[in-house]
Amino acid sequence: MRGTQTISASGHLVIGGVDTVELAREYGTPLYVYDTALIKERINQYKEAFAAYNGMDWQVAYASKAFSTIAILQLVNEFGLSLDVVSGGELYTALKAGFPAGRIHFHGNNKSDDELILALDANIGNVIVDNFYELERLEDLCAAKGREMEILLRVTPGVEAHTHEFIMTGHDDTKFGFNLDNGMADQAVQLALKAPHLILKGIHCHIGSQIFETEGFVRAIRVIFSYAEKWKRSFDFSMQVLNVGGGFGIRYTEEDHPLPVKNYIDSIVAVVTEECKARALSVPAVWIEPGRSIVGESGTTLYTVGALKDIPGIRKYVSVDGGMADNIRPALYQAHYEALCASRANEPADQSVAIAGKCCENGDVLIKKANLPESCRAGDILAVLCTGAYGYSMASHYNRLPNPAVVFVENGESQLVVRRESYDDLIRMDQPLKMFSSHE
Ligand SMILES: Cc1ncc(COP(=O)(O)O)c(C=O)c1O
Ligand SMILES: N[C@@H](CCCC[NH3+])C(=O)O
HAMAP family, alphabetically (predicted)? Predict the structure, then answer.
């Protein structure tokens, strides 16, 4: 059980004081349910971890790629976090949510002119510049508008985080950022300092995602400081901000052992302070960008159980009314999840089954080995836990499945924050065929 999850007297999973079987009945399934008390708890853990350091300048920016909707951005804003966006769409959502533009940071390895113009016109806090092409274009766009923009440069420190290859980004062979060890970053710092309309505030790095140890962060920070010292000496550049990205791990299953938030922050602050002292540099503001660890564990996806297929001696498949369209992570990263039968949460989970999605793909299996009660059958409500990050945000319309609804629950109340798509929503953008009227 995570966050506010409990089991009711009738044996139903309850989240935020709301019976999940009732939620399924009211809003339909599949349904993303967010335990907002847990989101707030996580946010506060980050804030408290930094607040322990008197005089330290810090920012926690929520990485909205993990889950971006108007309501979550409003919640995050209420709690005073900054925001990381990676596209015009995420930026637009943030602006529509009333997120203060000055606290928005814009990422991405291939931002379009339109996206950069949207950011400039909204007057966002800063742009994290990823490559030489962007450096040049951003300078030109600022010049054309006769304005300045604060920037960070994203660097690649050559550190391999111990995580899945596809979500590892700090190593040398990555599409992101300026590599440190081949001189690209040195050149970018010089160009940025010379650019009349760009104000180089600092450096950004992000070594990967779902990281369970502090070693990768520490190594990346040490590497960056060795360059920061050189840049100070050679170009008189003082790094005022060091953004170490996100990637703090969460517990998807009992095999995952993430560290408490405080441990990551303590290690980051300790190595920053130590490096500054050793190199006689002033301590920069420390920024981080957690996404998964703010919203991941708070999310649960509810499904309705449908067909069962028992292959004697091989396995039993329990099919649900969603799958890879609402959670691509098992198919994409071989990610593991845990599930429980929300409508029989008090019965012993004594049967091992595979939970299959409904997409027309043999690989659409959400969980290869889940333990469910023997009695679990069609009509039961199944809860897949820990789906709050990169579930809704990576959802697709594969097989023309409408995207599920999203509800927030807290203190016995639920609120619909994204309505379920209808079939009409699916064809809303479609245009009837006009060409090739070859029937005449
Ligand atoms: C630049 C950057 N910052 C922050 C994040 C958020 O990562 P996570 O959700 O693992 O905290 C990502 C995604 O991996 C990222 O690419
Ligand atoms: N989307 C990925 C992580 C990559 C995040 C962006 N750099 C996940 O579901 O784990």
Answer: LysA
